[in-house]
Each structure stands twice: as structure tokens, then as C-alpha cells.
Design a protein that fits this description.
Blueprint: E1 23-24, E2 28-30, E3 34-37, E4 43-44, E5 48-66, H1 72-85, E6 98-115, E7 120-124, H2 141-155, E8 159-160, H3 162-168, H4 181-193
Parallel strand pairs: 1-7, 5-8
Antiparallel strand pairs: 2-3, 3-4, 5-6, 6-7
């Protein structure tokens, strides 16, 4: 792209000001002046730069055993033969059980909170304690995540990434079209470096 548009320069991600390694945030508390992530110091409202949400489809592969299951009677008989003769019954013609892969997909939803100094807090919805929302807490994690993003948007001047905007609009995170975690991280990096 550089050279095709006048006054356009290509910038590699490594040349940008980098974010700190994400710290897991398992919960938070709201105060009058900011938020307090579990195990961290208070972050002032005006220090929250980015509120982000992302989601990825993950393929899970398990191995299931195929073939005949060995019954209790057969196992007891094999143990008896072994105790009497010292020869394990399975050594002579025992059939190895085959395994076949079983694939399934699951959706992972996650979020981030980035401060103006580049400190980054990671939110895993499955592990996050939303009790800091108080009376606004709901039964579903994604609804609680929406409430959390709305609270942060209302109380801060933080920018929202594509995913957070979809969550606020009650639309599926798959519309944000993240195909890898690195795409999500690049979006955060560029948002951080282009902040006003």
C-alpha cells in the first residue's frame, strides 16, 4: 500500500508502542473514582483507554475408544489365569482397541481492558466473577459482559473495539470476524497507538 497512495507509509506492528503482557482479571469492584480489578490497584475512570471484546471458534478433538468393552467376568478370568500361571491373558491374541477422533467446536468469549499506560487486563467470561455489578448482575455471562461494557462506556471515555460494539448491540461476536487471537491483539495494539 505504501507508495500507491501519496503520503502513505506502511508501519509494521513491531514499530508500534507495545502493550504490556495481559494480566488475568477474575473480578472487579466499582468505586466512585474508578475500578479495582481483583489483585490490582485502582484504575481511575479517566485512565481506562480501551474496552474490548472478542470471540473465537475453537475445534476440540477427543479420542474415543472403539471396539468391544471388556466385561467384568472376562477381566476376573484373566486375573485368575495370571495369578495361577503368571501369564497375562492379554498377551496371546488380545485385540488392541482402536481410537477414533471425535471433533466438536466451542465458542470462546473473552475481553480486555487497557489503560492509557498500556497495562492490559484479560477477561475470560468462564472464569470472571461478575458480582461487582451488584444488583445489575444477571444469570448469563454474556449478558453480564454486556452490562459490564455498558457501565465502563458510561463511566469512562474509553474506546470500544468492534467486538465490544457487537456485544453492546446484542449481536453475535462472530460478526467481529476474528479468525485468530493475533487479529484481536493487533486491533488492540493499533487502537492503543492511535488513541487521541
Amino acid at each position: 500500500m505504501a507508495g500507491t497512495v501519496p503520503d502513505c507509509v506502511a508501519v509494521d506492528n513491531e514499530q508500534l508502542r507495545q502493550l504490556a503482557e495481559p494480566r488475568p482479571m477474575t473480578g472487579l469492584a466499582f468505586t466512585e473514582t474508578g475500578i479495582v480489578p481483583d489483585g490490582a490497584n485502582e484504575i481511575a475512570w479517566n485512565n481506562v483507554a480501551i474496552v474490548a471484546a472478542g470471540g473465537l471458534a475453537e475445534e476440540v478433538v477427543r479420542r474415543e475408544t472403539a471396539g468391544k468393552e471388556v466385561g467384568v467376568g472376562k477381566m476376573a478370568m484373566g486375573l485368575g489365569v495370571f495369578l495361577v500361571t503368571g501369564i497375562p491373558l492379554g498377551l496371546f491374541g488380545g485385540k488392541k482397541q482402536e481410537t477414533k477422533p471425535v471433533k466438536s467446536n466451542r465458542w470462546l468469549t473473552f475481553g480486555s481492558l487497557v489503560t492509557r499506560q498500556g497495562e492490559q487486563f484479560a477477561i475470560a467470561l468462564d472464569l470472571f466473577n461478575f458480582s461487582g455489578l451488584g444488583e445489575k448482575k444477571q444469570l448469563q455471562a454474556i449478558v453480564n459482559f454486556r452490562v459490564l461494557i455498558a457501565e465502563l462506556q458510561q463511566r469512562t471515555s474509553a474506546r470500544l473495539n468492534h467486538g465490544a460494539r457487537f456485544v453492546l448491540a446484542s449481536q453475535p461476536l462472530s460478526l467481529a470476524n476474528y479468525t485468530s487471537l493475533s487479529e484481536y491483539e493487533s486491533e488492540l495494539l493499533w487502537m492503543f497507538n492511535t488513541a487521541p
